[in-house]
Amino acid sequence: MEFFDKVGKSALGSRLRLMTAVVTDDAAKIYELYGVDFVPKWFPVFYTLAEEREITITEIANEIGHSQPSVSKIIQEMITAGLIQESAKTDDKRKNNVVLTEKGTLISKKIKQQLEDIDLAIEEIITESKHNLWAALEEWEFLLEQKSLIKRVSEQKKKRESKDVEIVEYKAEYQQAFRELNVEWISKYFEMEEADYKALDNPEDYILKKGGKILVALYQNEPVGVCALIKMNNSEYDFEMAKMAVSPKSQGKSIGWLLGKAIAEKARELGAKKIYLESNTILKPAINLYYKLGFEKVFGLETPYKRCNIQMELVLR
Amino acid sequence: MEFFDKVGKSALGSRLRLMTAVVTDDAAKIYELYGVDFVPKWFPVFYTLAEEREITITEIANEIGHSQPSVSKIIQEMITAGLIQESAKTDDKRKNNVVLTEKGTLISKKIKQQLEDIDLAIEEIITESKHNLWAALEEWEFLLEQKSLIKRVSEQKKKRESKDVEIVEYKAEYQQAFRELNVEWISKYFEMEEADYKALDNPEDYILKKGGKILVALYQNEPVGVCALIKMNNSEYDFEMAKMAVSPKSQGKSIGWLLGKAIAEKARELGAKKIYLESNTILKPAINLYYKLGFEKVFGLETPYKRCNIQMELVLR
DNA sequence: TACATTTGCATAACTAGTTATATAATTAAT
DNA sequence: ATTAATTATATAACTAGTTATGCAAATGTA
């Protein structure tokens, strides 16, 4: 199909579907060729029964990777066709154990030769081809089990989008964004406090002039995240990382991570050995981010904020 | 899936179906991730429209390998969703040309980034894997186009079955089979003639004692095909190949071919340079076989059989 | 030019799967 | 010993495709 060369790999699903149709269409013709009264979709169920003697419907479904209702229907069809029968009931009356009938066993023998021929035919194609479809499917089953396609795509998305994120120094024009982004999350989870208003209304005086820094994350030139480094009066810590806020609309672009990294770098540039932060454990994603950035729990410093119930530090190196 | 290791390659269809399901399930989630109001099955049609501007339903179907009704339904859904519209009718009033709406064009742009991300994610899997699924599918499409799976399987079947065919010399116990197999086809297509009865009722006297030979094809120890080499009174030919008959139930096992080859070999052993045969052109598969065995048309010999309308010879070397 | 054939599309009916849900039997927990 | 939760199955409704078929328009042909 020329189409697939044009579209690219994102049409993998369509390409697989077409190949599946080609193969299963021929499967039906193959049973006809061998004069066996058999429907291709029965095969996985039938095979399992031929191997396992006696087995429940749900067990078959798990074995062959179908849904339970699918197997349930197939079983009914095969009972009608006289290939299988319900076996002597077990003690568990919910279970519907099934076994091959005599006719079923006969067909199973008849089919054996056919399966070998198919095996050889497919083996022949594999020999003719450079890329082994069977082995590729096996590998893909494993790789997608390890990390699903949606996970992989979402990682690509993040990677691409975080490339479009730019971290810049605070300018007066970002004051409104600095205030709004912080007010948004603080008032959502807690209540705005005196110290908040001071810093957010007048970052120039309350943060920058005291020797602090503010960084802004721009996405498509719009400020979508902010974070401040506030000078502390403390022998152990030079700076507190605070007022980190990321617009909910821009989540999933690793903006928090990029801001945190940049702030730590900035603190290092300014000669700090350790930085400090205060937060609250109900902010799970934030706490998670702090751990990822390398922060560790500490105890005992005094704080003007009611909402603080966890304190952390990051040793810079 | 452990199941597939057990079953073997004949479950290729099932394995493909499962992989298709895994991939297309995630496809739906991917559109959700990107906040696009879009159904995965629309994609091939949508892509074609985005590329080709204006195109008919049947053309799309051919392009993407779907059936026409499938595209027809998808088009209807996408019209309802406002992504495409019927374009200014062409002069051919049967045709239903469709184009993207403005909304459609917008989504097409929005989707571009997404497609690139998917492409990269799949590329990543390909890099991680030893066997390239995408390339394998491409190759298989080509190889199955060249020779379908059913064709390949049927060749395997023939190959295997012809191994179980044994060509043996005539014995008295095969007289009944020799007669019946021949009577079956002769009386089906023509009428039994005087010369037939003589040879079939008493091959010992009429064929063997005159220096001829009869070979019998056994399949699972049952006689399923016969062929005679009859001594001729002719300066040019030593033998006539005649009374070849194969049981209709045993067709497709190359029995005719094996008998013919064996008869030619036997004639060579007996010192013949050329052998001769008579037949009728309504027996197309037979004539075909004779050509395959190397026989060529000749003209002019006299024959006792009414049914003869073609004469052939095989030069032995 | 009239009639047969072909083409493009829509619709209906089918297929092989799915998810959602109901029911009965069993097992676990109080 | 009840009651709640879980398990095994069946059934219903849905999905994404297929073939079969009918109709109207266009094309080919005697």
UniProtKB/TrEMBL annotation, chains A, B:
<dbReference type="InterPro" id="IPR023187">
    <property type="entry name" value="Tscrpt_reg_MarR-type_CS"/>
</dbReference>
<keyword id="KW-0805">Transcription regulation</keyword>
<dbReference type="InterPro" id="IPR000182">
    <property type="entry name" value="GNAT_dom"/>
</dbReference>
<dbReference type="InterPro" id="IPR016181">
    <property type="entry name" value="Acyl_CoA_acyltransferase"/>
</dbReference>
<protein>
    <submittedName>
        <fullName>MarR family transcriptional regulator</fullName>
    </submittedName>
</protein>
<keyword id="KW-0808">Transferase</keyword>
<feature type="domain" description="N-acetyltransferase">
    <location>
        <begin position="176"/>
        <end position="317"/>
    </location>
</feature>
<dbReference type="InterPro" id="IPR036388">
    <property type="entry name" value="WH-like_DNA-bd_sf"/>
</dbReference>
<dbReference type="InterPro" id="IPR036390">
    <property type="entry name" value="WH_DNA-bd_sf"/>
</dbReference>
<dbReference type="Pfam" id="PF12802">
    <property type="entry name" value="MarR_2"/>
</dbReference>
<keyword id="KW-0238">DNA-binding</keyword>
<dbReference type="InterPro" id="IPR050769">
    <property type="entry name" value="NAT_camello-type"/>
</dbReference>
<dbReference type="InterPro" id="IPR000835">
    <property type="entry name" value="HTH_MarR-typ"/>
</dbReference>
<dbReference type="Pfam" id="PF00583">
    <property type="entry name" value="Acetyltransf_1"/>
</dbReference>
<feature type="domain" description="HTH marR-type">
    <location>
        <begin position="9"/>
        <end position="158"/>
    </location>
</feature>
<keyword id="KW-0804">Transcription</keyword>
